[in-house]
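Q: What residues go here?
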């Protein structure tokens, strides 16, 4: 279920967006034309739920603008942030491909513009368009590598190193790459690495005093990435 933004906006130029998208843009013109005929746009407001774990996996989403949070909640109410999908990314591909239920929750962190393609249209395209299939395989492989790395980090890295590595990863994938600003709350960072908000805040404050990061309302700026990288490297050597 998708909650619409309250303020209507003009329709997106679907062809232009698909051509500029990192996943779809390098495909042939005929593939873009087919995708354009199938895709439809959605505007969702910050905080809107795109889908929940257990929902039918009947569509694929491409992020045109904004940020989507992928998360899960345990039986006792604890949240774990699995990924943040920014403009140029896609999500919902797992359930779309196997036809099973959604494996996580998806929520808009900011106002978002999404491109949506239904499973009934997308799956036949994968069968007939090998270039599209290969691109999707690349996305799935990247997801798997990221998940494997997160599991390894939870086992081998201590909390400061996990926090430093996560901030560097978030900054590298942020839309504000020049300023290295990450639009995320301290609680959400803690949910990514399995750290309480209090422990996360304490460590971030210590790094802010050293001028390694700067805390802003609803965001974190990585001021000295080399200092954070040194923490990760030192912990890896000790292991």
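A:
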């Amino acid at each position: 279920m998708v909650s619409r933004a309250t303020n209507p906006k003009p329709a997106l130029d679907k062809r232009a967006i698909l051509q500029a998208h990192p996943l779809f843009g390098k495909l042939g013109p005929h593939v873009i034309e087919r995708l354009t005929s199938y895709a439809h746009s959605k505007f969702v407001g910050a905080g809107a739920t795109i889908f929940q774990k257990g929902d039918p996996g009947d569509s694929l989403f491409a992020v045109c603008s904004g940020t989507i949070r992928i998360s899960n909640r345990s039986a006792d109410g604890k949240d774990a942030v699995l990924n943040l999908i920014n403009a140029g990314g896609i999500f919902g591909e797992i359930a779309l491909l196997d036809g099973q239920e959604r494996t996580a929750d998806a929520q808009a962190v900011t106002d978002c513009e999404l491109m949506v393609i239904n499973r009934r249209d997308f799956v036949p395209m994968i069968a007939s368009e090998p270039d599209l299939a290969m691109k999707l395989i690349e996305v799935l492989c990247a997801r798997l590598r990221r998940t494997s790395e997160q599991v390894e980090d939870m086992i081998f890295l201590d909390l400061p190193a996990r926090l430093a590595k996560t901030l560097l990863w978030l900054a590298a994938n942020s839309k504000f790459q020049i300023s290295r600003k990450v639009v995320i709350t301290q609680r959400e960072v803690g949910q990514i690495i399995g750290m309480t908000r209090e422990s996360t805040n304490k460590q971030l404050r210590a790094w802010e005093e050293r001028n390694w990061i700067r805390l802003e309302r609803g965001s974190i700026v990585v001021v000295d990435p080399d200092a954070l990288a040194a923490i990760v490297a030192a912990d890896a050597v000790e292991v």
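A: Context that may help when evaluating the design: The two ends are 44 Å apart (CA to CA). The first strand starts at residue 40 and ends at 44.
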